[in-house]
Amino acid sequence: MDCSSYINTSLDLNINPYRVHEEVPKKEVGSKLFSLGMTKFSLKEESTDELEEELKRVTAENKKLVEMLSVVCENYNSLRSHLMEYMRRNPEKELSTSSKKRKSESSNNNNNSNLMGINNNGNSESSSTDEESCKKPKEEENIKAKISRAYVRTEASDTGLIVKDGYQWRKYGQKVTRDNPCPRAYFKCSFAPSCPVKKKVQRSVDDQSVLVATYEGEHNHPQSSPMEATSGSGRSVSLGSVPCSASLNSTAPKVVTLDLTNSKSSKDSKNNEPRKDSPKLPKNLVEQMATSLTTDPNFRAALVAAISGRLMHNN
Amino acid sequence: KEESTDELEEELKRVTAENKKLVEMLSVVCENYNSLRSHLM
């Protein structure tokens, strides 16, 4: 008996198994029973080979799928981190898209947990997202506590949204709001990387020649150059004290408004006192500073103590 | 031989199930990726 020939012929059975199996036992083996047994054996061989082939194919497919999945996961995580970074830099836009984002995040959370089992990238990322969400409110509170506003008159031909105030700013966004057709530009202080101060500049709704600059936060570094607040080639008024003017010892958020526009064309009746072209210290600012100081109980207590101490000393 | 065939069948079943799972996960990740991408665009 030549078993090896059986095994060899069984390879051909992959194409037409029954025909070959019927022929071979007639030629090689006389016993019907034995031929049946061999047929069974060769069928087993055949199925084993087929299984092996199938297993190989499926395993290769599996490997390919894992590779693809890892690539897509990588891309997804990269895109997600980009989105997070973008959201962090543009908090205004984040508010408008937060509802959408939340939906996608919540729907993605389950899927991410599935992915974590594969590439283990999700764990650290989800924790960092949680940390970010915890940190954000604190930072926002600190920023909101110190808000100041400055009004700067510009030339009629000047269409830019630049207010020069002695600090270096990096523009990171611009958008049009519903209440005001003029675009609003967003700047971030670029003098020091850790400086949290942000600035919004937009033309006034009432008077398009007036730029409204809103400062959020307090500079943690000295002024880069002792410049004056200008808008391109516009008028100039010292603005060095603007961000600091709101840094009084009060827990409640304060908004200090500094009007640097010329009162000649201004419609506001509160600014109708005559102004020079280049006043060293605007009266409006002095009044506002005085108001801020007088409403501060700590300052009043200190002032009373100082005056009474002086009187006692004189006596 | 029979044992090896059974083992192979078992292995094939396992790998096929894993394959199916991977395909499902891949489709989910692709969906999420596209959703995120559309948010960014």
TrEMBL record, chain A:
List, alphabetically, the InterPro entries matched: WRKY_dom, WRKY_dom_sf, WRKY_plant
Q: Per the UniProt entry, what are the Gene Ontology biological process annotations, in alphabetical order?
A: defense response to bacterium; defense response to fungus; regulation of defense response; response to molecule of bacterial origin; response to salicylic acid
Cross-referenced PROSITE patterns: WRKY
Q: Where in the cell is it found?
A: Nucleus
Mark out the compositionally biased spans (Basic and acidic residues): 132-142, 265-280
**Cellular compartments per GO CC:** nucleus
Answer yes or no on keyword Transferase: no
Which Pfam families does the entry mention?
A: WRKY
Keywords tagged on the record = Coiled coil, DNA-binding, Nucleus, Transcription, Transcription regulation
Q: Where is the composition biased (Low complexity)?
A: 106-127
What GO terms are given for molecular function? Answer: DNA-binding transcription factor activity; sequence-specific DNA binding
Q: Where is the WRKY domain?
A: 162-224
Chain coiled-coil ranges: 41-68
Name-wise, this protein is: Probable WRKY transcription factor 40
